[in-house]
Every structure is written in structure tokens, then in C-alpha cells.
Amino acid sequence: MNIIVLNGSPKGDLSATLQYVHYIAKKYPQHKFSTLHIARDIQKTENDPQRFAAVIDQVAAADIVLWSFPLYYLLVHAHYKRFIELIWERRATAAFQGKYTLAIATSIHCYDHTALQYIRAVCDDLGMRFLGDFSADMQDLLDTDKRKQLLIFADNALQTAAQQRPTFCVSQPAAVKPLPYCPGPAPSAVNPIDKKILIVTDTKDSASNQAQMVSRLQARFGGNGTVVNLQELRIETSCLGCIQCGYDNCCPLEDRDDFIPFYRDRVMTADILIYAGTIRDRYLSARWKTFFDRSFFMGHIPAIKDKQVGFVIAGPLSANPHLREILQAYFEMMEANLVAIVSDECSDSLTLDGQLDLLALQLITFSQQNYRKPRTFLGIAGHKLLRDAIWGRLRFPFIADHRYFKTHGGYDFPQRDWRSRLKNGFMMLLMKIPWIREEVYRKRIKSEMVMALQKIVEEA
Ligand SMILES: Cc1cc2nc3c(=O)[nH]c(=O)nc-3n(C[C@H](O)[C@H](O)[C@H](O)COP(=O)(O)O)c2cc1C
Q: What is 2-162's CATH number?
């Protein structure tokens, strides 16, 4: 069979993910694997219609499409995202329709599931027959058993395609088509006191719902919010994955365009951030993805810690639960306070007016009160995963992260909790005595567990 590999790594041939594909290819010499460096070559492919057509021709001629990609900010790399947009923009979907497809991703498993959900949804939208996905840790290929698992996955996928078997379907939530938003009379302005408000948007269409929502917020802030349009900001490329920033947070692209000064001087210094975007395929635009990818020069340091954030989204958010999860997880890991995600999937414009006005008010109130709601599993689990990786195998090359984690309490391992460790040791010894065990587990454990909390309530 003819397998076309769409490489989503900006590093081209040096992609770790691609080594997994090469490994499979070596084990199956009877099949032909051809690789297209989609993420690395996106600018050439986008700017040269013939080149794009040649890519699509290769897809059309293939028996199987293999999406091979690294995780970038809980999704795929911005250039890969752009390619996916181009498939629809240039009406090339027919080449993918009905084709067998599979996905191989590498990462450190930090929100790999959201990236896989995204690719899966894109494949479903393209009418492809999804054979399955395989999410490997970037080092898994070094392990004999993991290699075995990879080959089982590949073998199953190749056989299913060769024998033209059916594939499993995943039902997608129905998309609600948002209504055109017509804001009502100008709202009364809230006083932002001395808070610095930055609104980042990416639409050029002033009549769009996204633009209208941004205007409403600006009016509510009494014109005190600065608006920056990502389409007007000089950004030449997304992150190249070189990780030179790992040592000291200096990005080699710093002098090539305006992104780093913008992020460092405007985003990182704001008190209140409002991000506005429109759903394209199953995420925001590739431009927004570039914004997130390029912010990687700060590594795993929570560069927007303690900021109040509002997200304003036009388009079918409810049909894309992975997007909501990505945003919530991202801001929780950033230790920022995501006040709300306001979407235009409202019943009418009046309701949306009310939600936007409330968002503006809460952003300012919470900023004054330094409120940060507790993190959920998304942020806590994400933090623990990154903490362990940076303490361990990723300390080099991410030396700047290690410095930050060390000096800012990022290494909050339970091993340091001497009180609990002593208590546990003592109680575990006691529990060896049957009558004490009986007394504690049967009679006292519930009341003991709540005792300290009750004391606080009593004293309040
Ligand atoms: C800018 C950037 C963002 C990343 N984001 C994630 C992420 O969200 N989750 C994750 O588990 N790994 C993330 N990674 C790690 C890569 O996915 C991982 O190193 C991958 O194996 C690289 O594959 P490649 O060599 O094929 O590009 C990120 C790496 C970079 C450079």
C-alpha cells in the first residue's frame, strides 16, 4: 500500500515522531511510505499553489494518510494547523474523503488527548476512515516493549486498511450555528481604576461576531483597553522547536519579528487579558496557535501568572469540547484566573450583551481582589506532570525552567511534607495493633478527618 506521511514537526527530518514512522516503515518493506514535511515547509506550500496542489495530489494517490505530529501547546503545531485550514480554504477536501487514516503523536503526554481529539475531529469532518491513534512519549522508541506495542498498532491499522474493513465512528456533538451578533445600546462603562487591560484579537472583519464582541468589551471598559490584532502584528513564523530558549528564555527569532517584544512588554505586563478568536475547523485560527507556540520562549514558566483572563469565542464552541478543555487547562497551568469563556452561541444578542458586560465587570473586580479560583484536575495534574519532567529528564535542556521551579516553589513534591510522613509512619505502626485499628477505622476516622475543618468553622 501507498502511505503518505504528513509530518507535523517543524524540525522536518529531525522529528522524533518521524522516527516512529521510519521504524514502522522498516518493519513493513512491502508498503511504500512517503513523507511530506508539512509543518516545516508551510510557507512555501501556502505561497506556491502548485506546490500545494502537488501535496494534495499525493494525498489523493495514497491508500492511507498518516498524521505524524508532535504535541505543541496541547494541540498540533501552528503550521500543521494552517495546512489543515488550507485544505478547506482551497477546497481540497475531496482528496481526503473516504481515505483510511491514522495518527501517531509524540509528546510528554501533557494534554496529548486533546490534540488527538482535535485530529480525530478533523479526520471525521474530512470524511476519512480513522484507523486509530498512537500517542507515544518522545522516548518510547528506546523501550523494547513500547516498540512491540507500536508494531501491534501499525499491524492492526495496515491490515484493517488492506482488507477494507470498517472503522469505528465517534459521534461528534451537533454544532450550534451562532446568530449574527448585533450589540445593543452602549453599556455603562466600568471604571478599570489603574488596571492595564490588553485585548488580543485576530479578525480583520469589523462586522464579524468576534469584532462586535471586542467592541462591546472596549465600550464597557470605557475605551481603556488596548486592542492588538494578531493579523497586524509582524509575526514571521511559528516556533521552530529549536528549544534554544531552554537555557535563558532567549528566542533566536527575537530580532526577526515583533512577537517577543509584544509578548514580553504587553502581554506579560497586563493585569487583565482578553483573548478573542473565531473557531476555524476544530480550534481557533492558526494565527492564534502561532501566538501560543511562540510564547514557548518562556518555557514552562507561568508567564501570565495571577492575571485575570477572559476568552471570547465566535463559532461552535459546544461542538468542540476539547477546545474548552485546552483553554481551561492552559490558563490553570499558567496560574492565571480564567474568569469565563464567553461564546456567541447565545439565544440572542441581548443575552450576549449581558454576558460580555458581566465578564468586563468580573475581570476588574477580581483583579482588584487578586482572586484566583482553585485549580482543577486539569491544572494540578498538568503542573505535576511538568514538575516531574523538569526535575528529572528535562532539567537539561530546560535549565531556565529548573531555576524558576527551584526558586518559586514549583518542586512541591510530597516527599518534603515531613509532617505527613511522620504522621503516616506513626499511624501505620499503630494500625498493626488490631484493637486500635478497629477503633480508628470503625469509629473515629470520619470524625477525625473533619475535626480540623470544624475547628476553623467554629473560630470563624
Ligand atoms: C513549543 C513546544 C510546545 C510543546 N508542547 C507540548 C505539549 O503541549 N504537550 C506535550 O506533552 N509536549 C509538548 N511539547 C513536547 C513535544 O511534543 C515533544 O518533544 C515531541 O516529541 C517533539 O516531536 P518532534 O521531534 O517530532 O517535533 C512541546 C514542545 C515544544 C518545543
A: 3.40.50.360
